[in-house]
Amino acid sequence: MNNFKSIKAILSEVRTDKKSHFKQTSGFVQHGNTSVMKHCISVAYVSLMIAKKLHIKVDRKALVRGALLHDYFLYDWHEKDGGHRLHGFRHPAFALYNASKDFSLNRKEKNIIARHMFPLTVLPPRCLEAWIVCFVDKYCAFSETMGDGRIQWER
């Protein structure tokens, strides 16, 4: 199955789950002009692409679900609000809390979400999928902030 089709299938599950608030992420800006939803889809796509190109055996479903939910914090961190202070350090815990309420997550998915901001989150990722998302998240954030914000799946 090609990367975009597998992401679309899992994305459809995440969007349509009865408890899901994933659609709200399209209304929050993440980096530059990129929404949280678009950023998470980019992280999922590039993560799968890297695993495939480097022939890394991963749990594809956990990788995609973790990537799609890694920024499931459900607020606009750009708004001046005391609760958003130290967003870079704190949002993985908020994302994990929200994702755990709305979805049944496996151990790898939880680790991806909780540790994607390493080294800001002091504990490093424990699984290969979480390491991939950790690195790809930074690549996508840089591209969205400094470039035109478009990742390969959008071109």
General description of the model:
This protein is mainly alpha-helical and 155 residues long. It has helices spanning 3-16, 36-53, 60-69, 87-102, 107-115, 128-146, and strands at residues 29-31, 34-35. Strands 1-2 form a two-stranded antiparallel ribbon. Helix 3 packs parallel to helix 5 (107-115).
From the N-terminal CA to the C-terminal CA, the straight-line distance is 20 Å
Q: Which whole number gives the mean pLDDT?
A: 87
Helix and strand element order = HEEHHHHH
> What count of helical segments does DSSP give?
6
Estimated radius of gyration = 14 Å
| Main sheet record | 2 strands, antiparallel
Short description:
The protein is mainly alpha-helical and 155 residues long.
Q: Secondary-structure blueprint of this entry?
A:
Layout: H1 3-16, E1 29-31, E2 34-35, H2 36-53, H3 60-69, H4 87-102, H5 107-115, H6 128-146
Antiparallel strand pairs: 1-2
Helix pairs in contact: 1-2, 1-3, 2-3, 2-6, 3-5, 3-6, 4-5, 5-6
